[in-house]
Design a protein that fits this description.
Blueprint lengths: L2 E4 L4 E4 L8 E3 L14 E4 L1 H7 L3 E6 L2 H15 L6 E6 L5 H12 L13 E4 L6 E5 L6 H6 L2 H5 L3 E5 L12 E7 L5 E6 L3
Parallel strand pairs: 6-9, 6-10, 8-9
Antiparallel strand pairs: 1-2, 1-4, 2-3, 5-11, 7-8, 10-11
């Protein structure tokens, strides 16, 4: 997954084998790497994993682009185990669309649907289990304890919708905040910890 940084604009341009779409990321990164005369720094996905410790901002113009953003994050995380991704956003922001794209990489052939009523869906077609939580209906700490969240954390990777309702902190989790800019356009902020 080649990644190019434009020193003039402060944007990364990521080209993936998953799509021909150029996705722009705004990532603060120390300028300790050499650059070529065109003002660009070339990186690979492994370098991205090393440097991606701050905030990425993605502007999505459609549901398909939101899904592709999920796929791109999954491509970065797929070799990290275990991981937890916490999703934040209003109703209809695109959290489930993001999860659909994410799951295409981590658990191919899994059919993603929002687990609003079941609280958790298990996707088992990947190398390891992926647990998809929707905490929208969680009303109390007891409700939270009853789903066995800590057990799931120790048995696979987790992606959590409505993380605003999570009554505990999850150290080392990747956070994704999806904000509606208009009917189709979204701002997606991804914070990837050290």
């Amino acid at each position: 997954m080649p990644l190019c940084y434009n020193l003039r604009t402060g944007y990364f341009y990521l080209f993936s084998a998953l799509s021909s779409v150029r996705i722009e990321y705004r990532i603060p990164i120390p300028m300790v790497m050499g650059s070529n005369p065109l003002g660009r720094v070339s990186l690979t996905a492994n370098c991205l994993r090393s440097f991606l410790v701050q905030l990425m901002n993605i502007i999505s113009n459609s549901i398909n682009e939101t899904e592709k953003s999920g796929s791109e994050l999954a491509d970065v995380l797929k070799d990290k185990y275990p991981f937890v991704v916490l999703l934040y956003g209003d109703l209809g922001a695109g959290k489930t669309a993001f999860v659909r794209g994410f799951t295409k990489i981590i658990s191919p052939n899994s059919r993603v649907k929002s687990p609003t009523y079941t609280i958790v869906n298990e996707y088992l077609s990947g190398k390891r289990p992926l647990y998809h939580f929707d905490l929208y209906r969680i009303e109390s700490y007891d409700d939270f304890l009853s789903i066995g969240f800590d057990e799931y954390l120790s048995h696979g990777d987790c992606i959590v919708e409505w993380s605003e309702k999570l009554p505990v902190s999850v150290p080392g989790a990747v956070t994704v905040r999806i904000n509606k800019l208009d009917d189709e356009k979204r701002s997606i902020d991804i914070n990837y910890p050290d």
